[in-house]
Amino acid sequence: MEEKYKGYTPDYIDTLLTGQIFVFGSNALGYHTGGASGTARKKFGAVWGQAEGLQGQSYAIPVDYGKNVRKDKEVKEAVDRFITFAKEHPELFFLVTRVGCGIAGYHDDEMAQFFIDALELKNVSLPKSFVEALSGGSVNYDLERFMEPQEYAYPGALSEIRAGEKRGHWIWYIFPQIKGLGHSYNSEFYGISSKDEAKAYLEHPVLGVRLREITQALLEVDNKTADDIFGFPDVLKVRSCMTLFDLVSPNDIFNDVLYKYYEGQRCDKTIWRLGFHDNKLKNQIKFSRLTITKGGTVFLTDYNKEVKMEPLTKAVYLLFLKHPEGIAFKALPDYRKELAELYTTIKPLGLNDRVIKSIEDVTNPLLNSINEKCSRVRAAFLSEVDTSLADQYYITGKGGEPKKVTLPRKLIIWE
Hints:
19 helices, five-stranded mixed beta sheet
């Protein structure tokens, strides 16, 4: 493969290979304080007071001329100078960030137009949002770069995994990772640039099928650790791969590998590069088992978190949790007795007139009480679970259809 796949500029960059240049937007004074300009100054040699041009492993393009000031002509000319510079230096590879789309106030589709001539340059990568804007929303990931090496390497790789011992040198294009974790040509060339590219890989009719097949084979290996099978450092690369595709397809086969071989521990660098910067979120990108204790406590087992709700709201939640087929709101009067029994499990001192009235109200489909309780359930889970996963924990359903909790039953534990 003579040409280097340029892909899209990753959303997060904290290291560069030799010859790579971090391209960022600067203010007109060259004060590199925050955002990409701050990263350029702290990590890649940007010079305070230099507003344009190559500096260390970075290249500044002046785009910010003050609050509410737009100088499109000057910005276009600066971008053109950058493109000319890139053409004159084919030995360098330029990673263009979302230049101008922060404090400078440009939208991605506006700034992308300035970079249209960079699309054809083999040594310039643009952010995915720029490429989408310039190609009418169509993104073409070069997944064919995986097909050629897999044609001769995949059968052998599958056999090695089934035998419980990796021997060949195929890890990069059989178990791909997020771009930027390694420093070799192969790790860069076969690196996945974003969650969207990973999703496209998983949906590919050949690559996705092969990844699931070899991952299933890995799960079926008995009496060996991941280190026994892969050795160092490939044991870490596989964890990175499983973390990446677990983010694309949570609670899938990739999650099973992470639990079997890595005690559920994911690759923090992969999580970070995909934009999950918050420590709380890093611990919650996977589905947790949901344990209901004898006293009615709702507990996210794998997060070590209790989901706190007031007693009647919790009783409503447990009622829907006990009926995976769903409950139509219009049928709620039929569940009034069961709801009362669940309430007494949570509050064993018994029912008083006020509680009985509240149970009657919440099971009356003509009142708004049930919607209010469902909203409180939703809020309780959103405070503890990542929003991309939370909808499977709370009560959901389309209008006129039975409402239900869609969390897979195998994750629900009733003590």
